[in-house]
Specification:
CATH topology of the largest domain: Pseudouridine synthase
Number of domains: 3
Number of strands: 19
Helix content: 10-25%
CATH class of the largest domain: Alpha Beta
Largest sheet: 10 strands, mixed
Order of helices and strands: EHEEHEEEHEEEHEEHEEHEEHEEEEH
Length: 312
């Protein structure tokens, strides 16, 4: 089984499900999952997890993301993007660029968003977009999201190109719509490119055709990120060889069972998260140190049973 993460550049016209389906055929493996839906007309970074790496799908979905988007002012649609049916047109002549910039910046911070009807969220067991296609509108609860930064890249009225860094669950379409509402001009999203998802950036992404070539040339490992790369921001620690079997089976560990690091009196500190490895460099899982700094307890294990049997 292939284990790892592919940083896929999702092209226009594909759903996230389409990407997974095609990859299953390319790598001849069923155990694959994506880490966050992108609309068919959107493009950009879509990390895809293979094999044991599917355990981190949820963790990757929760990471912050960065998008480059074009806001089109003066037009509203039923989908909040340019692909929808136009439901309102408004003049933008005379709207000052400084007012546009000030309005956009006012959205930075924590805010409540009402998810669009054309979304994959469920209402009483049905997808909202299914109801929307039937002409139905239902009440949606607002969700709290964080817009960490909005950087205006260019204003050429009625279009504004901007870069948005945000928390999970943020709808960029809805942000464009809400900006237009606040300006009084209406607005919708004209294009969307996801440039970063967690630690995965668009510069390192590969297209499906490139993955296909890599598989045929037997060099898939060159573009496959190891599972532990997701946790590169966490400090790496190693269990003493004589205690490795305890770690393999998910037991708590004491400070004295961790190999000392050069210059460190203590390898771990209270309330810290760590990447745990054995002496051979095999990634075991994520451990968390308790409040008194004495015990490390497992949060998520990544060794499969066969590996455990081989090493115990």
């Amino acid at each position: 089984m292939i284990n790892g993460i592919l940083n896929i550049y999702k092209e226009k016209g594909y759903t996230s499900h389409d990407v997974v389906a095609r990859l299953r055929g390319i790598v001849s493996q069923k155990k694959i999952g994506h880490t966050g839906t992108l609309d068919p007309d959107a493009e950009g970074v879509l990390p895809v997890c293979l094999g044991r790496a599917t355990k981190v799908c949820g963790l990757l979905t929760d990471r912050d993301k960065t998008y480059e988007t074009v806001l089109l002012l003066g037009k509203t649609t039923d989908t909040q993007d340019i692909t929808g049916q136009v439901i309102g047109e408004f003049p933008t002549k005379g709207v000052a660029e400084t007012d546009v910039a000030e309005c956009i910046r006012s959205f930075i911070g924590v805010c409540d968003q009402v998810p669009p009807m054309y979304s994959a969220l469920k209402y009483e067991g049905r997808r909202l977009y299914e109801l929307a296609r039937e002409g139905k509108t239902v009440e949606r609860k607002s969700r709290r999201v964080t817009l960490f930064d909005i950087r205006i890249l260019d204003i050429s009225m009625p279009r504004v190109r901007m870069e948005v860094t945000c928390s999970k669950g943020t709808y960029i379409r809805t942000l464009c719509h809400d900006i237009g509402q606040k300006l009084g001009t209406g607005g919708c999203m004209e294009s969307l490119l996801r440039t970063r998802s967690g630690r995965f950036s668009v510069d390192e992404s590969v297209r499906l055709d490139e993955v296909e070539r890599a598989v045929s040339e037997k060099r898939l490992e060159e573009i496959l990120f190891p599972l532990d790369s997701v946790f590169a921001d966490l400090k790496k620690i190693t269990v003493e060889n004589r205690y490795a079997s305890l770690a393999y089976n998910g037991n708590p560990l004491g400070q004295e069972q961790i190999m000392p690091l050069p210059g460190d009196a203590k390898c771990v500190t209270a309330d810290g998260q760590y990447r745990l490895y054995d002496g051979a460099g095999h990634f075991i899982g994520i451990y968390h140190c308790d409040k008194n700094g004495k015990k490390l307890r497992p949060e998520k294990m990544f060794l499969d049973p066969d590996q455990i049997k081989e090493r115990t």
